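Blinded run. Sample ID left blank on purpose so nobody reads anything into the name before looking at the predicted structure. Input follows.
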Amino acid sequence: MWIGWIEFDILLGDVHSLKGKRSVIRPLLAELKRRFDVSVAEVGDHDQYRRTKVGVGMVAADRGHLVEVLDAVDRFVAGRPEIELLSARQRELHSED
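Blinded prediction complete.
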């Protein structure tokens, strides 16, 4: 079994409140879940309205599928015009590691 995750450090565009932040982040999280069938959550910078950290995780039977999906998630997030992706860190582990 392979376990993988990717953590995004994101700068939000024209956002001036936590309510505005939610209006950008909630649709992004919902679309990631729907499109890629992954677990996703806002995992950091909860009190800052222009920054956030988003974590995406999944479990797969083989590493190839895991990397393929996480790479697709990375491209999807990087291509979103309403956000600026500052960094992305990806990791894969085998259950026997």
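Unblinding after everyone has recorded impressions. The longest strand covers residues 83-94.
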